[in-house]
Amino acid sequence: MTNQFSHGGGRPSAWTRSQAAGLERTDRTVAPIIYPAPSDPFDGWHIWDTWPVRTRDGTIAEIDGYRVIVSLTTEDTLLPGKRHDLAELHYFYSPDGRRWGHGGPLFDGGAFGSRQWAGSALYDDGDLYVFYTASGSRGESELTYTQRIAGAEGGRVSVSPDGEGITIDGDWRHEVLLEPDGRFYEREGQSRGMIYTFRDPWFFEDPETGETTLLFEANTPVPEGSDRCDGDPVQQEFNGSVGMAITESGDLMDWELREPLVDAVCVNQELERPHVAHKNGSYYLFVSSHRHTFAPGIEGFDGLYGFVADDLYGPYRPLNGHGLVATNPANAPFQAYSWIGYFHRDELLVTSFFNYYDYVGESLDGIAQLPESEQLRRFGGTLAPTLRIRLDGDRTRILGTLDHGHLPLPSEPLPELRSFEGRTAGY
Ligand code: FRU
Predict the structure, then answer these.
(1) Is the CB of 76 within 6 Å of ligand 1?
(2) Which domain, by its residues, includes 138?
(3) Coil, strand or helix at 395
(4) CA-CA 20 to 30 A from 53: which of 91, 162, 299, 353?
(5) Tens digits of per-residue pLDDT, 300-335?
(6) Ligand 1 contacts CB of residue 84 (under 6 A)
(7) CATH number for the domain that contains residue 268
């Protein structure tokens, strides 16, 4: 199918096994160890996947001096392993990117899914649009893992009546926007390995063409007997992709699927929370992924991975040759996850959530074996220190950090860089 924005062929760009074979922890890519903040601004809540409310150009929206985030949220008495089953979208606001007020649940009960997973939020001329993952079906008695991409419009953002903080309300109208087509995007019934993915919609408007897109996490169908991965049926189960949809009419509740931008067939099953940041004519595409979702024979990490291209549609090449941009230190390999980057002047600022500390287990299931009080003690469930990253063509480097959850507005200067863990900070 062609349209005024159609670009050359050759999609999706492949993240190959030989590129991923080069993955390694280095000084440029390992984030500093995280210690809990002296006091947790999200006390009372577990928060994990988080996204700032942004404007069409991708910058953080400044709403009467506040920034607003939406987070997957549960009460913090819940065991960490249960959080995905009860996730709800809550919003928080901050006057300085350090103190956060709890606004409350984002929706008033009309959302699709038995729970909601990650997405994005667009603040456009006073209107709020939210794109999210509807997981399972509303009212289901047994949890299912069906994933659909949903949208909600009609949200209103205002300063709270007492002048302190932000209130989000409005007459939300929800719609299911996208479901997998079975051709570009695997359906639940086609899945051969781990549970399929079709989630995490991310709004991106291309500043060069004005095209409006949604990126999302998906899987490429690989039928049994395929010759992909030299016919290796085990590797074929690892089929993550970064999906794309466009709106030809500009209606933000009306999207059409297009071919994926990138896939990782034979390499990795989950390219999570894809998002693009644009700078100086380059498109930087980022995803989060886990060590345990890499195909056998590839040694990956829980980390932020990135690709760069001169055009939104690619071809994309992995940053640093292999794709790794930021990971946890080897002695705390699961300390943070679900990284989201945005440009602030010349630096890429990357927020994530502080997951487990002093936890060195091999898998996320490991923590579920611990006594309940231990599980709760070890779980961060809050925002991690924001990473400051320099991007230079295909090369990246962690320069340092900001405080836990510090998300500067475009107008705010950044503090001086400090050296950290024996590494020199700075350019
Ligand atoms: C990544 C993720 C997302 C999903 C959410 C569910 O942290 O797997 O892809 O939307 O967690 O909790």
Answers:
(1) no
(2) 13-404
(3) strand
(4) 162
(5) 999 999 999 999 999 999 999 999 999 999 988 999
(6) yes
(7) 2.115.10.20
